[in-house]
Amino acid sequence: MVTQTMIAGPARVLLGLLAALVLVTGCSSPPMDTEHAIVEVHGHIFTLEYAIDPQTRRDGLMNRTHLPPDGGMLFVFPDAAHRNFWMAHCLVDIDLIFLDARGHITALHRMVALRPQGEDESETAYEARVREKSYPSFFRAQFALEFQAGTIDRIGLVFDEKIDLDLDRLKRLAR
């Protein structure tokens, strides 16, 4: 057994620093990755980009030309509310599910990419056209997951199903 009296001089300082490092790193939780979430749904693993602030939620998957089968986006809102998504500047079809504050699916949508904004079409006219085809949450939703088109059917998602997510952690991320 080593006691403090048996360790002298520089070794005592080094041991003290090591102990402090263990206390700081070993007893704290790992840093949160605020860029990606690893989510398992029906035995399928997805790496989803976070959309946790107004800017990332607004941009969503705009201007993407490809979405991998195991990719997508996890939208986290600060509160549960009735929500509508639309496909502004989205170039690929996307599957969307809304989740309430408890993680239950409130709506499933197969969103279809719309004709891109025309060169002579103003942003206002384009947004008005795009918003005509919106996808509602139907009930209050705090989360939304977007996947590659066909994922809803491929993995068999259904209304009111609970998706296991670390909801408390996600709610802390929302801005």
Distance, first to last CA:
51 Å
Overall number of strands: 8
User: Which fold name fills CATH's third level, the topology of the largest domain?
Assistant: Jelly Rolls
Described by the principal axes of the CA atoms, the overall outline is globular
What average pLDDT do the residues reach? 84
Element string (H = helix, E = strand): HEEHEEEEHEEHH
Q: What helical percentage do the residues reach?
A: 25-40%
Helix/sheet category: alpha+beta
The CATH architecture classification of the largest domain is Sandwich
What does it look like?
The protein is α+β, with helices and mostly antiparallel strands and 175 residues long. The chain has 2 domains: 1-30, no CATH class; 32-173, Protein of unknown function DUF192 (Jelly Rolls, Sandwich). Helices cover 26% and strands 29% of the residues. It has helices at residues 9-26, 54-59, 123-131, 151-155, 167-173, and strands at residues 36-41, 44-51, 71-81, 84-85, 94-99, 105-111, 135-136, 141-148. The protein has a 6-stranded mixed sheet with strand order 1-2-3-8-5-6. The N and C termini lie far apart (51 Å).
Question: What key attributes describe this structure?
Answer:
26% helix, six-stranded mixed beta sheet, 2 domains, alpha+beta, 8 strands, two-stranded antiparallel sheet, Jelly Rolls, disordered N terminus, globular, 175 residues
